[in-house]
Design goal:
Shape: elongated
Number of strands: 27
Strand content: 35-45%
Helix content: 10-25%
Distance between the termini: 37 Å
Structural class: mainly beta
């Protein structure tokens, strides 16, 4: 199904939500337009809460598994993927999205479980237990084999058995490892798994956007991290704009730690504008963190991490009068869409029209609008507001382990493939031929006509009225 929303921003703090379209194979677009010269360039932002960003290199250590389906059994590769982290570092991951394809060189971002199929999976904690109690976290394969009742384990057996056990919980699939030793491990892990909590992000800033008046301290923005220390990278034009990053005592910050609170110190005579703060650290990413791709590619879960570069950003907006919006977005798989949150720190209402209905955010209040999206469809939201403010959010909603019809086809291991089953992946392996993607059936293309969704039935509005400028 495809959805459309119409409207446009009005100047002086009055806004309307404009066209949001979803077309198979094309970007979903949402535009909130208004008057004024742009103070931000509208560079695309993915809906991440910070952490590691990495490129998938391929399936590196794996064996074989068999998926039992109504249409018959299919053999697939099962094991560990490897990712290269932007800025340095290496990640090892397993797939938690069996029936979607994996794209070569796809870029991935550390993501909360709520932005993936794990958020609604009551067994997600069991998957984390498996990761903590199996390969590669447990590298004493002899000891692991004894616990599983297997006669020895190779790295390939251990990776395949671990992936099979994960699929039984992530996709609730009927799947067995081909090698008896790997199957013993999979059965042991499935039987022994216990629930657990989602791990904390490696690095986040909360909230992801703030706003206020020049001369005031904009914030606080709180640092959450498992790193020992975090470097503060001030706004690019800080030297000319006069914007400083300080703590509540006025001290300029160049480094912070977990729990630190940051503020944007904007000169009182500053013209309306925006600035972005970045923080960066080097740390190991916690086992069990989810990773989603910028394109349609299998969701992954972290099994191991070297010391890796992680980062997070937050944006500040200021103006001397009128509505002053702070805008952020995040994937919300529980509601099947993207949450657009607007906080108004100005002295005038911030009003928008959505689906023919006008909604108003009073001064010092906030509201979240959930834009429903079709599974596996790209989206591209450009949001503008008073004084030429622009924010753009892009991504793909991937909330289910069963992929949507896309017209893509993949190969099974019975067909020609550069992968070497049961060993290390050959250089240049096409990821669409390996891992869980191998079971995706051949699907014919589907042409979908644009459907305009009337009324506000599919749009969830959550109003959080907050009194006072500190709301």
């Amino acid at each position: 199904m495809l959805a459309a929303f119409s409207g446009l921003f009005r100047p002086a703090g009055v806004t309307r939500l404009a066209a949001v379209t979803l077309v198979s194979g094309l970007a979903a677009a949402g535009v909130l337009s208004g008057a004024g010269t742009a103070l931000a360039d509208g560079t695309p932002e993915t809906q991440t809460q910070g952490g590691a960003t990495a490129t998938i290199n391929g399936l590196k250590t794996y064996g074989e598994a068999v998926i039992h389906q109504d249409g018959g059994d299919q053999r697939v590769a099962a094991g560990l993927f490897e990712m290269s982290v932007d800025g340095g570092g290496t990640l090892q991951t397993y797939c938690v999205d069996l029936q979607n394809p994996t794209q070569r060189d796809a870029r991935y971002h550390e993501t909360p479980w709520s932005g993936t199929s794990l958020g609604a999976n009551k067994d997600a904690g069991r998957i984390r237990w498996i990761l903590q109690h199996s390969y590669p976290q447990v590298n004493d394969l002899a000891a692991l084999a004894r616990k599983a009742g297997a006669r020895g384990l190779t790295e390939q057996d251990a990776a395949a058995g671990t992936q099979v056990a994960i699929w039984r919980y992530s996709d609730h699939a009927k799947v067995d490892a081909v090698d008896p030793r790997a199957e013993k491990l999979a059965d042991y892990l499935e039987r022994s798994a216990r629930g657990g909590a989602e791990p904390r992000a490696s690095l986040t800033l909360d909230p992801p956007a703030v706003s206020g008046r020049p001369g005031d301290l904009l914030g606080p923005v709180t640092v959450h991290t498992n790193a020992r220390g975090v470097t503060v990278i001030p706004p690019a034009d800080a030297a000319t704009s006069g914007v400083r990053i300080i703590d509540k005592t006025g001290k300029v910050l160049t480094s912070v730690k977990d729990g630190s609170e940051l503020y944007f110190d904007v000169p009182e005579d500053a013209a309306a504008g925006t600035a972005q703060l970045t923080v960066q650290a080097s740390t190991t990413v916690p086992v069990g963190r989810a990773f989603t791709a910028e394109s349609r590619s299998q969701t992954q879960i972290l099994a191991g991490s070297s010391e890796s570069t992680v980062s997070a950003t937050t944006t500040a907006t200021w103006a001397s009068k009128g509505a002053i919006p702070a805008l952020s977005a995040r994937k919300d798989c529980a509601r099947g869409g993207v949450d657009i949150t607007a906080v108004n720190k100005g002295d005038q209402p911030f009003t928008f029209e959505l689906m023919g209905t006008e909604h108003t955010i009073p001064a010092a209040a906030s509201r979240t609008v959930t834009i429903p999206l079709q599974e596996d469809q790209p989206y591209d939201f450009t949001i503008t507001g008073p004084n030429g403010f622009i924010r753009r959010f892009t991504g793909v909603l991937d909330c289910r382990t069963q992929g949507a019809i896309t017209g893509e086809s993949t190969q099974t291991l019975s067909e020609p493939s550069p992968a070497t089953v049961g060993g290390k992946a050959a250089t240049g392996t096409n990821l669409a031929d390996t891992g869980g993607s191998a079971i995706t059936p051949l699907i014919t293309g589907l042409a979908i006509g644009l459907v305009v969704i009337g009324g506000g039935v599919l749009v969830l509005l959550r109003k959080k009225e907050q009194a006072g400028p500190g709301a």
